[in-house]
Write a structure and sequence with these properties.
This protein is 78% helix and 0% strand. By secondary structure, it is an all-alpha fold.
Length: 240
């Protein structure tokens, strides 16, 4: 793997761990300045994710004009079609995986998603992290670097499987490993199909934005649907 790729992985991991020091530091700073300390977390996320993205894009500056897996990327029109289709493909994969998890007894809903929604509710500007910056970083790290490096040595299935499991575990919700792995496979497929990292980036950004907007606008209705589904599941389970 290229030296720049190793540095990018270190930057990404450092960003994920930066809150250990950064948040207490901002709590002190906000307290000293008399600012609302309840906004420390969203502001730190915006700062750390933005800084990481700037550093990573700088490290990749020589590759920005290159397609990704090889020099024969799909045409602009084909890539655009796959990018739009990829959004629906990702939503389908997410829904299918969620239904399978439910059949396996995994509780509906994601604690990670709920935390993100709470952060956005306290500071709407934080949506830029969950909907734009976060997906861009994840596609660069998990698809371009990890999957791309594995795909040079392994076939698609094993490359996507390994990178998708790492992608799933990175979200710290092992109970939803099937859900996140399904997303990882989908974005890896889009990357291989078009050979351009911008395609899975677009699909990931669009999907995250759509999910966040829907769950923010229809939060109460979705919570009620989840409670109803869990009651039905428990009712059926009583007869098995």
């Amino acid at each position: 793997m290229k030296r720049e790729y190793w540095i990018i992985l270190i930057v990404y991991i450092a960003m994920q761990l930066s809150s250990i020091v950064g948040i207490p530091g901002m709590v002190f700073l906000f307290g000293y300045l008399g600012l609302n300390q309840g906004l420390v977390v969203p502001y730190w996320l915006i700062f750390s994710f933005t800084l990481a993205l700037i550093i990573i894009l700088f490290l990749l500056r020589k590759e920005i004009q290159k397609p990704g897996l090889n020099e024969r990327s799909s045409s602009f029109g084909s890539s655009a079609i796959w990018a739009v289709f990829g959004v629906f493909l990702a939503l389908f994969a997410q829904t299918l995986a969620a239904n399978i998890e439910q059949l396996l007894g995994v509780e509906m809903g994601s604690e990670n998603t709920q935390q993100i929604l709470n952060i956005i509710e306290s500071l709407p500007l934080a949506m830029i992290v969950s909907s734009v910056i976060g997906p861009i970083l994840e596609e660069i790290v998990f698809r371009k670097i990890i999957f791309g490096s594995l795909h040079k040595r392994l076939n698609f299935f094993f490359s996507a499987l390994i990178s998708s499991i790492i992608f799933a575990l990175a979200h710290m919700e092992p109970q939803h490993i099937l859900l996140y792995s399904a997303m990882g496979f989908t974005f890896a497929f889009l990357y291989v199909k078009t050979k351009h990292i911008l395609v899975p980036i677009f699909a990931h950004v669009a999907m995250n934005t759509l999910v966040v907007v829907i769950q923010s606008v229809y939060k109460d209705e979705i919570d009620q649907l989840i409670r109803d589904a869990e009651r039905i599941q428990n009712f059926i389970g009583g007869f098995l």
